[in-house]
Design brief:
Helix content is 43%, strand content 23%. The protein is of the alpha/beta class. It has a domain of 172 residues: Rossmann fold (3-Layer(aba) Sandwich), CATH 3.40.50. The strands form three sheets. It has a six-stranded antiparallel β-sheet, covered by helices on one side. Strands 8-12-13-3-14-15 form a six-stranded mixed β-sheet. Strands 9-10-11 form a three-stranded antiparallel β-sheet. A hairpin with a 2-residue loop joins strand 4 and strand 5.
Amino acid sequence: MYVAALALADFRSYASVELTFDRGVTTFIGSNGQGKTNLLEAIGYVATLGSHRVATDAPLIRSGAERALIRCLVNRSDRDVLVELEITPGKANRARINRNPLTRSRDVLGTLHTVLFAPEDLALVKGDPSERRNFLDDLQTQLTPAFAGVRTDYDRVVRQRTSLLRSAATNSRGSARDAAAATLDVWDEHLATIGAQVLVSRLTLIEQLRPLVAAAYADLAQYSVPVQLKYKTALGDNLTPDHELLADAVKAHALERRRDELERGVTLVGPHRDDLLISLGELPVKGYASHGESWSAALALRLASYHLLRSQSSHEGDPVLLLDDVFAELDTARRDRLAEHVAQAEQVLLTAAVDADVPAVLRGRRIAVSAGEVITGA
C-alpha cells in the first residue's frame, strides 16, 4: 500500500498543491513553519479523518477559504483507489471514493492505513489518559473501520446521559430528580452495552500489542528493563474481554456511583474514564522515566502499531509510515535504530528541517518546501 498522488486545495497553508509519489522514501525538506507537516497531516487525515495536531477541523481550512479539499490516490495491491474529502467547518464532511459519493465520510476509513511518528507522541506516555485512550481507539478504527461507529455511539450516549445528570443536579424538586433517575435506567443500559464493546476492543488490542511493544522497546532502548502495558479501569483488574460480563460490570458500577453522579451532574462511569498504564518494570513511565526512556516507549507504541497493521492487512501491503520531524528529537543511537526499523517499509514519507537530520539508510527522493509551496523535487 502506498500513496501515489496527493492534491490539496485550501488545506492549511496550501491554496493548491499537487504531488505524485512512488514506493520508497520521500523526504520533505524545509525550515520550520514552511508547510511540511501540513502534507503529512493531510495524508493522515485520509486514513483517520482526524488530525494529530488539532481536535477540530476548523484550523485545517486555509485562512479566508470556506472549505478544504483533499484528493488522495492510494495504491492497494496494485489497484488505485481515489479518495476525495471535502472539509467544511460546522457541516458534515463529504467524501467520495472513485468519484462515487458516500453516505458517510467515515466509510472511507480502511482505504489507507498510516502510522504517524511525531513530536506530539511524547504525550502518549507523559500526557493525559485521553491521549492513550485515543491511541487505542484510533488504532482499532484502522484495524476495524466499523469501530468508528461504536465510538460515535458511545460519545453520544455519554453526552446524553451527562445532560440528564446535569439537569437532575440543578433541579432541587424531588419529583424531577426521581423522573431523571428513572430515565437513567435506560441510559445505563446503553452505556453498559456500548461501553462493553469499547472495553472488549481495548482489552483485546492491548493483548495483541504487548509482545510487539516489548520487542520494539527492547530494540530501541537496548535496556534490560521490560516495558509493560496494563489497562486501568474502575471495574477491577484481570478483566476478560467478554461483552456480557463487561456490560454487567459497567451497569453495576453505574448503580454504585449513581448518587455521586446525580450530585455532580457528570458521568463518572465508563471506558471514557479509563487509562492505559505503561511501565518500565514496576515503575510507570509517566513521572519516573527519563526523557530518552519516554521517547523509546512512545516510539515502541508506534512501531507496534505498524507491525500489527502490517500483520492484519498483509494482502494489501504495509501501512504508510509518516515521520514528522522525529529524528531531530532523538539521540544518534535511537535515530539509527528507528531508521533501520522503518527503512524496509513499502512507503516512508518524512519531514526534516535539514538534510543532515535524515539517517543515511533513508536516503531517497527529496522535495523542498518553502512558504506553503513545493519548490523542487528530485
